[in-house]
């Protein structure tokens, strides 16, 4: 063996402390670095995203997150944006009310006598208060037209539906009509009567500044003194 070959042979082998030759080491496996996920631990379901995004895109307004999250518990196979058959009559009656065509028949058919009605101007509880609000709306307008609406959610558990509405009101003493976009949440009892309705103008939360609740409650109490509401018949009153 030549001297050059012998030198290369000695360089190719490593030796331990005893001088024994050892085979070359195999390459180490590549190291892995783990990074925390940038996604939140709780990711909204596709149905929830579709409901909120679709409704908000259509309406151009925000939706109260607490209201939206409550209605995810439906076990029905029906898609949540399809209005349940049991909710159809109530929605039809609400359209009549918002179009300033209130009747005692509508209120007794679709509203519980102890129902709660809330919007940015009032906080009503019971027939006398919420009925006065609907008849007052008809008094202060010369007409109202529903420009568009879209069901955002309709569920069986809880018994509730939420919809977007764009309504045009022609107010007395004002030449220019006013258009209000709303997200309306309707809670129903087992008899398909409204037990709570919340009308969020512009999709915004109801006023929470100091004194707002007091003023809204006072408006609900004073309006029945100023607005005439047809009297409920005793037979109908006891049947609810």
TrEMBL record:
Residues 1-40 are annotated as: Disordered. It comes from the Eukaryota. This is Uncharacterized protein.
């Amino acid at each position: 063996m030549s001297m050059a070959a012998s030198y290369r042979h000695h360089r190719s082998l490593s030796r331990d402390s005893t001088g024994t030759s050892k085979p070359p080491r195999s390459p180490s496996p590549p190291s892995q670095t783990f990074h925390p996920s940038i996604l939140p631990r709780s990711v909204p379901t596709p149905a929830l995203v579709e409901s909120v995004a679709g409704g908000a895109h259509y309406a151009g307004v925000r939706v109260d997150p607490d209201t939206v999250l409550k209605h995810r518990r439906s076990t029905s196979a029906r898609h949540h944006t399809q209005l349940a058959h049991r909710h159809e009559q109530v929605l039809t009656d609400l359209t009549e009310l918002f179009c300033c065509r209130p009747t005692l028949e509508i209120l007794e058919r679709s509203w519980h006598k102890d129902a709660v009605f809330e919007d940015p101007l009032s906080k009503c509880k019971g027939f006398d208060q919420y009925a006065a609000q609907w008849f007052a709306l008809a008094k202060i307008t010369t007409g109202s037209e529903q420009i568009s609406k879209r069901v955002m959610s309709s569920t069986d558990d809880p018994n509730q539906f939420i919809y977007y509405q764009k309504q045009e009101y022609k107010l007395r003493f004002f030449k220019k009509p006013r258009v209000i976009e709303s997200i309306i949440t309707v809670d129903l009892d087992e008899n398909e009567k409204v037990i709570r309705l919340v009308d969020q103008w512009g999709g915004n939360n109801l006023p929470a500044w100091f004194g707002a609740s007091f003023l809204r409650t006072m408006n609900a109490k004073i309006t029945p003194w100023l607005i005439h509401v047809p009297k409920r018949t005793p037979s109908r009153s006891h049947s609810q």
